[in-house]
Amino acid sequence: MPLVGSSSGFCSPSSGFCSSSSPWTVTTFLLISRPLPSRLASPLHGLSLSCFHEATDQDGRFLALSISPSHKAAAAVVSQCSAVKKIHVSEWQRDQINKTEVAYRDSDLISACVLPMVRRLSSYSSNEFILSLSTSKISPFSKISILSTSSLSSLSSSSSSSSSPPPPPLVPDHVSHCKPIFSPFYHLLPHTQNPNKIVNLISSTLKQKSPNLSLLQNDIRAILPKLGANQISRILLRSQSDYSSALTFFNWVKHDLGIIHTVQNYCIVIHILAWSGIFSESMNLLSELIQLVEVQSFALNEDIHQNLAVCAENCNWNPVIFDMLIKAYVKVGMIEKGLETFRKNVEACFVPSVTACNCLLSGLSKFNYDGYCWEVYEEMGRLGIHGNGYTFNILTHVLCKDGDSDKVNGFLDKMEEEGFEPDLVTYNTLLNSYCRKRRLEEAFYLYKIMHIRGVMPNLISFTALMNGLCKEGKVKKAHQLFHQMVHSGIDPDIISYNTLIGGYCREGKTQMCRLLLHEMIGKGICPDNISCRLVIKGYVKDGKLASALNLVVELKRFRVKIPEDLHDYLLVALCKERKPFAARSLLQRVSEDGGYTPKVSTYNEVVVSLCKFNNVEEAIALKSEMAKKGMSLNLSAYGAIIRCWCEANKTMEAEGLLEEMVCSGILPDLEICRVFVNGYCKERNVEQAVLLLNLFAKEFRVYDTESYNAVVKVFCEDGNVAELMELQDRLLKVGYVPNSLTCKYVIQGLQKTMVLDNELLDQTMLET
């Protein structure tokens, strides 16, 4: 049967593929994922490569291999193919297709020709496929058209042949927000209004030297809603060779169009960037994707590692991306996810690099997952990943945290057996561990070993030893070591100075601390918050509050910033030293000069201190100042002012403050109740005192027996037994419970009443 058929047997002139006068030949295909290997020439009936034509499809992902019938050898083979013939090629390097079909067809067997293409290509292009037609008059790939499988459903249903399961699609159906819509009338529309042209339009714009996506956005505004995850993925894949265009498009979709990318879109652009060697931007996008998926729950049940692996089947990729995923998880503090990714990499035969392993080990150690550190280390040995000095230093640090010196020494021996000499970092890790555990003898022995092996101690080494000496109270020896360090040419830093200052402060030698501060400033090292806190609190602890205040003034003169919390500390210290006026003065100076507003608790402390010295006017003025700054008194401060007013027989003012306190949501306590009752009793205003007792019992559930006894005592002193009994009944009903002192006052009252009655009777008898 001849290969060349009439146009009526294949397609009509209106179909857009051919004209009625042109003899058409069905071009056969072989879909592959990379350029054709020369070893494939032999299986194809001995045809030489000169018989074949290669071309990429519209997405730039595949190559099509056509057999040209113009070649004599090819024509001889093809002419014998009156029925379907298949040649199977397997074991392709990194090929998505497990079994590739090469089919030769003639025009009368068009259904047999199209159906294998439908089955193979529909899984890669989301229900689209590429059909290439050629004649002897034109190039085999000058005509390429995209057809819908839906238009060939009748052919598909009529075929009884089976095909192997297709590979996974590039973009799953559940994330394809906008699928292409095919209509026989779309070809009549302008390209800028044809939804099926959106991928071509954007891809063409990106290939320009200076792509203007904003201008394109205005031109294709009508079809932009059709831009879904599938189309975005196809455009990204077409831009694989130009990472800049891919990234520009990715950001344009995200920022300008406001479309939320799928995890697959992220993975594709990350692969493109990593393949192009743009690792910093790849890491940034990986971190962004982790935040979206793991933190913000943007895509539930999405596995980033799995998506990266799936997307790697469809685009160029660099294995380093799976290392970077481990680092990205560690970078954001998701250590468990990093460990999980490490395990997945091993299962998928992606051998992690030693750098990725070290990053994971460092994160595990930092978050105290020490047991998992050894799991990773053992896996490294099984995979043949040779650790470096950084690896051993991390593991040495892990062992030092456990404090098992035998394990540490054994591990160091293993290091040396594997050819790694302990370096300065290793020794510093050990020195710091020994000094923290106060094993100074071993620390200084190691210090000598360093000199013997030619490893010179650095600033960290000396500081660790000084810290250990200071903790043992050997500050003088620490200072000698400090001088030894300086003489060896190592300049001290703020940490080494703070180590000495802390040691001297613990011994109460504040004058030495002051000298060290001046020495620091003289060398151009500005004291930090730790330095200031150590010295100032050391002065206060030794009862030298005035010296502490003078030091603050002195440090400010040297432009040293005093920590804000130290101002509060000094204000409270002045109040405790019963120096409220100095505290008030410092408070005002700090607020005006430093621009710092002390804590509300500090203000309340000053108010209470002023009231202890009966300076209620200054306390009220400070209260007004607090109100302007949006602060309010606490219970202690309210109670202090109320006490001052009640003691000054100003119960009316105290009642107003009580009402203000209750309105602000602060309920009075026993102390305030006693202050009021004692004030009323002092004024002999027992009726108001009784009303207050009822108020506190009913409204605030405050039952103060001491206040109750104070009122009973006044009644007893006046000898009003009848009123006393009536008061007893009233207060018992609201919940007050008398105690032994109450009974004592009542008995004294009754006795006094009897004495008064006898005196009155005697006087009456004398008068009569």
UniProtKB/TrEMBL annotation:
Repeat listed as a keyword: yes
Alphabetized Pfam families for the sequence: PPR, PPR_2
PROSITE patterns the record matches: PPR
The UniProt record lists the keyword Repeat: yes
PANTHER family: PENTACOTRIPEPTIDE-REPEAT REGION OF PRORP DOMAIN-CONTAINING PROTEIN, PENTATRICOPEPTIDE REPEAT-CONTAINING PROTEIN 1, MITOCHONDRIAL
PPR repeat coordinates: 318-352, 388-422, 423-457, 458-492, 493-527, 599-633, 634-668, 704-738
The name this protein goes by in its record: Pentatricopeptide repeat-containing protein
Entry keyword set: Repeat
Organism: Arachis hypogaea
Family: Belongs to the PPR family. P subfamily.
Region (Disordered): 1-21
One Gene Ontology term of the molecular function aspect: mRNA binding
